[in-house]
Design a protein that fits this description.
alpha+beta, single chain
Length: about 110
């Protein structure tokens, strides 16, 4: 209920599968049709070309160090109407293997 009131979307990124499971709000923010699981590349291509490098750098930093926060604002082109939107995202590594290798990232987004 709190998430619905806040207009925040949530997603889980499976690093091994390179796949994202997201809630309906996240799909709506990105202008994508809802699905059980979608390729990570589908989400990455929505990011404005000028923002792709900093978004990837922030993700790489998060994966390299558990204490590095992933808090970033960037632009996307929505899939359904190509509208340019600015979103804010936060993420954490939610699951690692026994060696500390990241397996899963949980993220929240808000436009």
């Amino acid at each position: 209920l709190a998430l619905a009131a806040s207009d925040i979307g949530t997603a889980v990124y499976d690093l091994a599968a390179q796949a994202v499971r997201a809630d309906a709000r996240t799909f709506a923010i990105f202008g994508l049709p809802c699905a059980d699981e979608t390729p990570f590349a589908l989400w990455r291509e929505r990011v404005h070309p000028d923002d792709r490098e900093p978004v990837q750098a922030a993700l790489d930093a998060l994966l390299a160090s558990p204490s590095t926060p992933y808090r970033i604002q960037y632009r996307i082109h929505r899939a359904d109407d190509n509208a340019l939107r600015r979103i804010a995202a936060r993420a954490i590594v939610s699951r690692r293997n026994g060696l500390g290798t990241p397996l899963e990232v949980i993220a929240v987004t808000q436009d």
